[in-house]
Amino acid sequence: MEHETGGGTPLYGPPPEDSPHEPLERHDPGLAPEEAARRFYETMRRRRTVRMFSDRPVSRETIEWVIRSAGTAPSGANKQPWRFVAVCDPATKAKIREAAEAEEREFYSRRASERWLDDLRPFGTNPDKRFLEIAPWLIVVLALKKTDEGGQTYYVNESVGIAVGLLLAAAHHAGLVTLTHTPSPMGFLRDVLGRPDNERAYLLIPVGYPTDDCVVPRIGRKGLDEIGVFVE
Predict the structure, then answer these.
(1) pLDDT at residue 15 in the model
(2) What is this structure's pTM?
(3) How many CB atoms lie within 10 A of CB 125?
């Protein structure tokens, strides 16, 4: 982390001439920071993982803005090691469902430990992934092991993870619901989509509207005293 003086004056010199910089355009919410942070929390606490998707259409423009938001994430050396493939083609979604369910059947019948299955039981999950065809969009998140030009990427998992968090927040802010689906292994996604070798499947995210009768598991969230530690 960079250090600053109490007055906000950087303790480092000017940037090198071959590294252009520009003034920061800081976001001003027009509220006290405590109130702005609380309002954001009140919005995000309603975000839930959903499996009961409606086939109600979602415009491509909406998905484009969601992906743009994901692309604002910080990344190691600004290599932006992510790609988001947005799929609405029914035939491609059917192929993804078929391949995902094959892996899920293996998971539930052979790969998962009894403890893992016990932990999943309250959520009612199973190999049936029909939502992959019902949801209007599937966003396949791919992590770039190398840049498209063959260059090095850094902190790939951390960078892509942050981008996914922003993507989920943007979709929720747009009134949509999502599911973070992780069929394992996920190599079939790159094969179905014909993606290059430098891209590794990271996550599969159905995006859309919930059904009118959508329900979600009744769960609790850890309180601030469990997830936050303050050293003052």
Answers:
(1) 76
(2) 0.91
(3) 15
DSSP secondary structure of 101-159: HHHHHHIIIIIS-HHHHHHHGGGT--S--THHHHSSEEEEEEEESB-TTS-B-BSHHHH
Assess if residue 56 is contained within a domain: yes
pLDDT for 5: 42
For every residue of 181-201, DSSP letters joined together read B--SS-HHHHHHHT--TTEEE
Q: Which residues constitute the domain of residue 166?
A: 49-212
Summarised one tens digit per residue, pLDDT across range 115-167 is 999 999 998 899 999 999 999 999 999 999 999 999 999 999 999 999 999 99
CATH for 105: 3.40.109.10
| 44 Cβ contact list (under 8 Å, min separation 6) | 169, 172
Number of domains in the chain: 1
